[in-house]
Amino acid sequence: MSSPARLAVILGPTASGKSALAIALAAKLNGEVVVCDSTQVYRRFNIGTAKVPPAGQKGIPHWMMDLVEPHEIFTAGDYRRRAEEILRDIHARGRLPIVTAGTGLYLRALLEGLADAPTRSEELRARLRERSAGRGPEYLHRLLRRLDPGSAARIAPRDTQKIIRAIEMRVLTKKSVNEIHAAGRAPLEGFTPIKIGLKPPRPALYARIEQRVEEMLAAGWQEEIRAILSTGVSRDAKPFTFIGYREILAQAPVGEGLKTLPLSGPSLPAATINEIRKSTRHFAKRQQTWFARESNVHWLPTFGDDPLAIERSVAFLR
Fold it and tell me: Are residues 66 and 193 in the same domain?
């Protein structure tokens, strides 16, 4: 029987340099990058999801991006099935798969598997949406906090789709999402994950977040949103709930078309830009909380583009 293949896993909060480290390692170790991010599976939503553009990939193949249209549903189980095929193909070609993990649930699905969850209940979902109407966008999150505090701590208050799914699972099974996922998993076979975690100092991370928001706006984030909407994509599409997209889109109220959507970063209200920064910082904290529970991680107290991080990661993987 052949020994398990190496699987590099780079995890850490947004703006910590996971992609930079993965690309550097791929160049040194004959690898390919497998993105593990629930926002990057959607086509056309590029700037605000921090997809590495083709020029930035430096010739390194990147997988598991641009998989579905904005209106399509894509689950952690879908990710597991498709990513596992990619991992095995990369290994079969004699190359090292390098996973860049920003979405903890997707990483759990890939490495540990997910238990059989209850099927969707459209009746329950309709009741939840009806109850939340007129009570504000965070009503369902407050409800989830009472039913399943652990899930509420991991899910953003405005991520309605994930909140409804967590409530649905709790109501239908009488168990928390963690309890459901802990039972009946099918771990990934044939690979030995080598986890490398990025944990830069918080002040430095927050400074990078602020810088990246500015860079995204300068790169044409608003123009991207305008272009997506002009193709007929609904404002209700899930990717428009992602950080930054929802704040920018709020500048073009329903019924007023796109004429009120600011054309460039400087024309956005300062309060909107600050809200994007704040939401991103909160997201980074949630990611850190999730990844802190991961076992057997080689933690590096720096960013992924730090030469020391690259040097130490190569040593871990050889």
Answer: yes
